[in-house]
Design a protein that fits this description.
The complex is a heterodimer of chains A (about 160) and B (about 170). With about 160 residues, chain A is mostly beta strands. Chain A is built from no helices and twelve strands. In chain A, the strands form two sheets. An eight-stranded antiparallel sheet of chain A has the order 1-12-3-8-9-10-5-6, with no helix packed on it. Chain A has a four-stranded antiparallel sheet with strand order 2-11-4-7, with no helix packed on it. In chain B, a hairpin with a 2-residue loop joins strand 5 and strand 6. Chain B contains no helices and twelve strands. Chain B starts with a strand and ends with a strand. Chain B has about 170 residues and is mostly beta strands. Helix content of chain B is about 0%, strand content about 50%. In chain B, strands 1-12-3-8-9-10-5-6 form an eight-stranded antiparallel sheet, with no helix packed on it. The model of chain B has no long low-confidence stretch (mean pLDDT about 90). Classes of the chains: A mainly beta (about 160), B mainly beta (about 170). The interface between A and B is medium-sized, with 37 and 29 residues.
Chain lengths: ~160, ~170
């Protein structure tokens, strides 16, 4: 298995989203590594090709402060992927990875595994889930954004292509 | 993904360590294949020799048999096979660390690990560990623990950890 860095983006100023466009169709899978912090508590969502079509999600979320473990299955207009990103310290960034399988196939629905945390000195949220986009289209654009507010400066996303 | 180092226990050892980690990658991935010489199922991971529990916050989801539970604390153990696991069973695990070479940013470890036991209860654990120092990660230590969670355990001969750089 070989990882090739396709693109990386570090925000120099607050921004509503990070977008990777013109994704080469030459790899088997995609991996996104994200260190993110937001202007408000929010989930992080992935959107493929700008689509607000149907995304189906199954997720487990653990709020470590309240010792609450929850699970949900839902449909949404984006793939809501990970934990709250409203961190308290300027040095705290949530840590997330998204694996997107066979993204260039036009014969299969697109599936992703998502995992992330926003663990601060006073808040511990841990998220693990999976979802699929109800489309067979090849993924050429990937948009990452908080469900509300913006990403702050320093938020970094890196896109890797995975070869067998 | 580029292999940086592999550490294998030739005999039982209390720790396995990656030192002098190159600072040229973006993320780190670690594959684990571990077994303890003792009966306790947990081990811990820390960066740059920082094993003071006050420097860490951790949360964990544990599945045991047919139940699932959660806990949190400073150091939450990850899982491996034990002396009571089936013979020659080394349990798998995986760790991902984003932005390990960045200074001035708190580091987070995301880990999956399992404790294999053929004849009794097996364990699975998802853990997130937050290291509240912002230093770049230059070394990673895996330490066998006892039920106190503060060392004293040992990895069996043949235990292996492999460190990969991504990006």
């Amino acid at each position: 298995m070989s990882y090739t860095q396709i693109a990386t983006s570090t925000l120099s100023a607050q921004a509503a989203n990070i977008t990777f466009s013109s994704i080469p169709q030459t790899f088997r899978d995609l991996v996104v590594s994200l260190e993110a912090r937001g202007t408000s508590g929010a989930m992080i969502e992935l959107r493929f090709n700008g689509s607000t079509g149907t995304y189906r999600i199954v997720a487990t979320t653990y709020n470590g402060v309240g010792s609450t473990l929850s699970a949900n299955t839902t449909s949404s207009t984006a793939l809501e992927t990970s934990a709250s990103i409203d961190n308290l310290l300027s040095t705290d960034f949530g840590s997330h990875t998204f694996d997107i399988f066979e993204y260039s196939s036009t014969a299969k629905r697109k599936i992703a595994l998502t995992r992330g945390s926003a663990t601060t000195s006073s808040s511990r949220v841990f998220y693990q889930g999976a979802g699929y986009w109800d489309s067979n289209s090849a993924i050429t654009t990937l948009l990452i954004k908080p469900t509300s507010g913006s990403f702050i400066a320093g938020t970094t996303a890196t896109l890797y292509g995975v070869s067998a | 993904m580029k292999l940086i180092q592999t550490a294998t226990a030739a005999t039982a050892v209390s720790t396995l360590t990656f030192n002098s980690i190159p600072q040229t990658g973006k993320d780190l991935a670690i594959y684990l294949h571990l077994r303890s010489t003792a009966s306790f199922i947990g081990f811990r991971v820390y960066f740059n020799g920082s094993n003071d529990s006050a420097a860490w916050q951790s949360s964990r989801i544990i599945s045991t048999g047919s139940s699932v539970s959660v806990d949190n604390g400073n150091f939450q153990s990850m899982m491996h096979s034990t002396s009571s696991s089936s013979a020659s069973a080394f349990a798998p695990g995986f760790i991902y660390i984003n932005g390990y070479a960045t200074s001035g940013r708190i580091k987070t470890l995301l880990g999956d690990s399992y404790g294999e036991s053929y004849s009794s209860t097996s364990y699975g654990g998802l853990v997130v560990q937050r290291w509240n120092l912002g230093d770049a990660i230059t070394s990673i230590t895996f330490e066998g623990t006892t039920s106190s969670g503060t060392g004293g355990g040992a990895f069996a001969a043949g235990s292996t950890v492999s460190l990969y750089s991504i990006g």
